[in-house]
Amino acid sequence: MVGNGATNWSYDVEPAFPATASNFNVIPYHLYKTFEDNECHFYFHDVRPASKSPICVATWARIQEVTSKLNWYDLYRDVDHGSSLKSQSKWDRYGQTEIDGKVHFYKRGMTMSEYTPWAKHIVDNGTTYGDYLTDYMNRPDVRKAFNIPDKVGVWEQCSSKLNYHV
After folding, report:
1. CB 6 within 8 A of CB 12
2. Global confidence as pTM
């Protein structure tokens, strides 16, 4: 399974985030209004030129500050959602499953800094996200339901096996 919702730099990620954050009531409306009224623009990995006006830079910085503890990928869930992996040993980060009669290990979920290493403004509190998903996707009954052949290894969230470039 491979997927990413960011497909158009004119609309996705940072261009859409102020409106999304405002609609979720996680930033004050006046910040969003200031951002929009001044036609501010900021882009992921600076793929396009950002707004340089002092009001835009200050407003964007404040939006980043207010949202720094949010999981951008799951605004419906608390950042500290009670993951079973928080503040336990690094070995608890790994699960195991049986594939073709052999035990295989997989990394359970990701911390925020692992998931979004480019988003330096996001605070990483050590909570692991996606551990429930990786456990689910590696269950033998789920692999069978998805018709995943035994030659395909374990499922990991945002695997580094793909060499992705922006």
Report:
1. yes
2. 0.61
Torsion angle of C-alpha atoms 138, 140, 145, 148, degrees rounded to 10: 70
d(CA 13, CA 72): 9
Distances from the Cα of 9 to the Cαs of 15, 65, 94, 126, 131, in angstroms?
8, 22, 34, 29, 29
Number of other residues whose CB lies within 10 A of the CB of residue 125: 13
Tokens of 29: 């409306």
Residue 134 is encoded by which pair of tokens? 């990786």
Mean pLDDT by 10 residues, the chain (166 residues): 64 82 93 96 83 96 87 64 54 88 90 75 72 91 95 82 62
Whole-angstrom distance, CA of residue 103 vs CA of residue 26: 43
Q: Distance between CA 64 and CA 115 in Å, rounded?
A: 17
Q: Helix, strand, or coil here: 8?
A: coil
Whole-number Å distance between alpha carbons of 59 and 74: 23
User: Which single residue is written with the structure tokens 């954050």?
Assistant: 21
> Per-residue DSSP letters for 42-69?
--GGGSSPPP-SHHHHHHHHHHHHHHTT
